[in-house]
């Protein structure tokens, strides 16, 4: 019973974390930039935000974004963070699908419990790898962006990325370490 609850908890936390990573990848509010203090930048309409896909300017009643489409002139850290976040988003799909097939309420023919156990272990490893990609990208981007411009604060996308990566890491560790051993999967498959 405990292993079943841990599998469900691992699946739910991993799924919510993966959604957070997808949201982080697709939004542009990674860091808020300004050359002055925030009140001064708001008065001068110079408060901006920077993300993987666009640089944005936030003015009174206006939010204008300039897409970053020229790959050859982009800094290396933006390209690397894009690749890491896309890899994390793509790795999440097979991990979540594997976790769906491992849930105790799902049976796939007369497969042995050991096969289910191996799928659970593979899903846990994929989730930990996904979390590491997201953590590296969400830490590397603001550090390198700070070297280019003055960062005033982190944007909500970074917070969503950090929370999503931690949830995926916790979910992967729960699936990998705490969801039971091969014998418990064999007993469940025999029921």
Automatic annotation (TrEMBL):
The chain crosses the membrane at residues 83-102, 122-141, 161-182. The keyword Zinc does not apply. InterPro entries: Claudin, Claudin11, Claudin_CS, PMP22/EMP/MP20/Claudin. GO terms for cellular component: bicellular tight junction; plasma membrane. The keyword Cell membrane applies. Keywords: Cell junction, Cell membrane, Membrane, Phosphoprotein, Tight junction, Transmembrane, Transmembrane helix. Coiled coil: none annotated. It is found in: Cell junction, Tight junction; Cell membrane. It is a multi-pass membrane protein. One of its GO terms (molecular function) is structural molecule activity. PANTHER family: CLAUDIN (PTHR12002). Plays a major role in tight junction-specific obliteration of the intercellular space, through calcium-independent cell-adhesion activity. Belongs to the claudin family. Interacts with tetraspanin-3/TSPAN3. Interacts with OCLN. This is Claudin. The lineage of its organism: Eukaryota, Metazoa, Chordata, Craniata, Vertebrata.
């Amino acid at each position: 019973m405990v292993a079943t609850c841990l599998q469900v908890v691992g699946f739910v936390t991993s799924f919510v974390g993966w959604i957070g990573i997808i949201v982080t990848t697709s939004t542009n509010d990674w860091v808020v930039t300004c050359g002055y203090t925030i009140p001064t930048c708001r008065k001068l309409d110079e408060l901006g935000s920077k993300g993987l896909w666009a640089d944005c300017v936030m003015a009174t009643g206006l939010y204008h974004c300039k897409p970053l489409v020229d790959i050859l002139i982009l800094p290396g850290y933006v390209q690397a963070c894009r690749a890491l976040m896309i890899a994390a988003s793509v790795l999440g799909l097979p991990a979540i699908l594997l976790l769906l097939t491992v849930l105790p309420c799902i049976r796939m023919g007369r497969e042995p419990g050991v096969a289910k156990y191996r799928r659970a272990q593979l899903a846990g490893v994929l989730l930990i790898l996904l979390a590491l990609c997201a953590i590296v990208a969400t830490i590397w981007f603001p550090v390198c962006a700070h070297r280019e411009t003055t960062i005033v604060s982190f944007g909500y996308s970074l917070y969503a990325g950090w929370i999503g990566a931690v949830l995926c890491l916790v979910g992967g560790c729960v699936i990998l370490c705490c969801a039971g051993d091969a014998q418990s999967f064999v007993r469940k498959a025999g029921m």
